Amino acid sequence: MYWSPDCVENVVIGINGQFPGPTIRALAGDTISVELTNKLNTEGVVIHWHGIRQFGTPWADGAASISQCAINPGETFVYRFKVDKAGTYFYHGHYGMQRSGGLYGSLIVDLPEGEKEPFHYDGEFNLLLSDWWHKSSQLQEVDLSSKPFRWIGEPQTLLMNGRGQYNCSLAAAQFINSSSSICEFRGNEPCAPQILHVHPNKTYRLRVTSTTALASLNLAIGNHKLVVVEADGNYVQPFSVDDMDIYSGESYSILFTTDQDPSKNYWISLSVRGREPKTPQALTILNYFPTSASKLPTSPPPIAPLWNDYNHSKAFSNKIHARMGSAKPPTTYDHRIILLSTQNSIDGYTKWAINNVSLVLPATPYLGSIKYGLKNAFDHKNPPEDFPSDYDVMKQAPNPNSTYGNGVYMLSFNSTVDVVLQNANALAANVSDIHPWHLHGHVFWVLGYGEGKFTEEDEAKFNLKNPPLRNTAVIFPYGWTALRFVADNPGVWAFHCHIEPHLHMGMGVVFAEGVDRVRKVPNDALTCGLTGKMFLNNKGH
Amino acid sequence: MYWSPDCVENVVIGINGQFPGPTIRALAGDTISVELTNKLNTEGVVIHWHGIRQFGTPWADGAASISQCAINPGETFVYRFKVDKAGTYFYHGHYGMQRSGGLYGSLIVDLPEGEKEPFHYDGEFNLLLSDWWHKSSQLQEVDLSSKPFRWIGEPQTLLMNGRGQYNCSLAAAQFINSSSSICEFRGNEPCAPQILHVHPNKTYRLRVTSTTALASLNLAIGNHKLVVVEADGNYVQPFSVDDMDIYSGESYSILFTTDQDPSKNYWISLSVRGREPKTPQALTILNYFPTSASKLPTSPPPIAPLWNDYNHSKAFSNKIHARMGSAKPPTTYDHRIILLSTQNSIDGYTKWAINNVSLVLPATPYLGSIKYGLKNAFDHKNPPEDFPSDYDVMKQAPNPNSTYGNGVYMLSFNSTVDVVLQNANALAANVSDIHPWHLHGHVFWVLGYGEGKFTEEDEAKFNLKNPPLRNTAVIFPYGWTALRFVADNPGVWAFHCHIEPHLHMGMGVVFAEGVDRVRKVPNDALTCGLTGKMFLNNKGH
User: Which reaction does it catalyse (chains A, B) (predicted)?
Assistant: First the structure.
């Protein structure tokens, strides 16, 4: 549908006539039922419930080719799943580049009645962060699949709750050394910023989620400290910062206290991190009662850390620990998988690969093909669990043996799995990107981050005392990140870079565990590919 | 894939890396087998074999929601069908606006070895005509479904064999009173015109098909007469004209003789008819041996008839008669259906409707739902076979009782059916468009065209002596067109305006006949909607 997310008219994938989709709010322990009817003309669609474990309902995970078939135009699929843990989540498309096309919304799970959060707040806000291109998601897909490769470029605009400003700035003229004009809003425009109205001397909870297709972000509130208390639906030991990084796929709750001069307003800013920022800072206003919301802050907007000040980012990540009293990880692992991320050229196409295999999703959902033992739905050879020991992660590498693949890492049910994500140099010299990796169906402990190539000796540095539980963790340029999780959720689960064009270019793997324990997968999740054919061949007619 | 159909880079739906798709050539009596693998990212796809009757293979007709489910990304569907009659045909997408997106190609059926055409020619050419928008087909779909309505506008460029020139003209400066510059080509550009190289004093067969999404066209070759010999795969009594109209969905063979000065070249021109032309004339060159192909014609390009000179168009249509000795139509009919075409506003959406019903295609293909007696797949009430006798086709009408519908006209097998297509005033005053109606699965006799509202008395004017056989026939503004066909092809068949946005806006109906005689529909044509669910419920697992 037509919409103007950043004051420039464009087409978005809307839900029930809204963009972003409606916020879904439930209590922990609730069962959520969503009837998704696909009203697109020719495109299939799915929705992934990001951060929800889907324990017992792996078919409701909403990952096309993995947990279900895409829903055809005109058809309805019912997602029915339990939300077992309070926290800040979101939902989004997980097919092609439909997330970039605007298919997303917030999902907030509150504590059951009678239970209390381990921190106090007087009110709360929710900010769903995203990035927006003026080029359609379909054209972006063609770009990424072209030979020679065409990069989609940086987003035109950053959005907060689906609202951004492309041709103007809230702080123009007054503070920003740019030619852009000051924004003028009546207030009811779809791109008018959502102002946060607060009372003095209160504490607010700000829920922040990032469903960006590409951008890593830095959030700050001028003159206010941010106290981080939740990450990806897990409590963290509270710590205070002036600004915070948030990568695609992550969610946080932060507390801030309105202890500043109430006769002024303050900037809330969002800036690009980790890529040379060609996208302007996004702004909105923290409005103190009884000051008018239209009064601009008297100070300039917060200055973001330099885009490539990775030490700043690492310092933030290293501050995140599990809240005291949280469950500790198993002290040993059963299975360790090393995953090297490289940018590769395969037959002249630019791809991302894991241990030199670039993921191409099959036409048949793995959940069905594994459950029903279909032999030809994907490559049953085990994908590589390591990379050559002489591989130099600091240098450009031609990786001449790169291939496409769709194999599955088969995990023993209830085993403890360590994954070491290893970053490396990309195709160009002296380039190594940030990649936030997201695991479906689980939470993992982040045992640590390190520089260069991971070695067995690095294990001594693992934090087994208070590692944070997350569902998304970043690998820094030329570094490694170590994760541990228990493979206790029967199903098939994507584990992938949450940068949507990177996943589209093959940057992901597939884990499966205990699929024999999955109770009957609803047939209507499996109407495509070889599972579809299997039903057809039941010769009822 | 990226392509530059009109010298402006854009994305087209290609086939095997080509645009237009490869020309398929076969002999009458051959069975054609096409394996269509859908390599689009998130869109389904089908291909309709326009003009092929699909006798005995109604599931291979390639009309989404009617003969089959759209083929999912990553999946392959095999179209296997017999081409029983020599002639000039084409193929194209029949889902959403994918035809407008470039999904088309030529299909030429030659006489079997040993058989001879009833006319002589020394060589032949093929011109597949289309129109091209710079806006993607997905955005066009959103436009047409928007409230308030957004018309897609006129095409930017007319294409011959997928080649056109947007920013320049072959005849610029020299002849055309415009600011556009002269085209300069090396010759290997995808938008370089395809030049027709001929020898003097020969006769050539020019096959012409129009797969335009919108434009009605007029074709002329400067200084040369066109002798029409074939229409939609049927021989016609040869007649000679200076220029000819061709509507979307039509195909012709014309003969021309190279009897002009061989030291010159001549223009071949294509112009818009029936809509105020905002799209420049398309040109290519008829190049006489041994003159250089780069030598421009010395005369200006042919001047097209005025866009609204409907008398010129009617005169052409009325010249088309069946070749002497062709089979005559039955002299009486069993069933007459009057179909009034109106433009309607339904809940603020702009639609086209037939007898006040705007077609919305169902999620389940009719061929499956009728074959298997599924009750809830579509509305089983018969759609209206006439319109109120006091309806004034010359005036704007609010049509307050317009509805959406998906009912089927059930035809008795082997009955003779008359269809009278009745045109009317559109929503705006003094507007009545041209609509070329195309029938799947059949040829029909065009019994006549008339002005104003059809009455029983008009029947006396029907041509039962030598009406031409066609699969596409136009209704002129404020007029009617009478067709007769025998419902002898078991299956379900679309009958619709071949202007793609008009069909998308509801301008079509569905005929069904003898579905009980259809042998087993391949299950893989029916994996969606309620037929899909039917297979799932066979509880094999």
Answer: 4 L-ascorbate + O2 = 4 monodehydro-L-ascorbate radical + 2 H2O
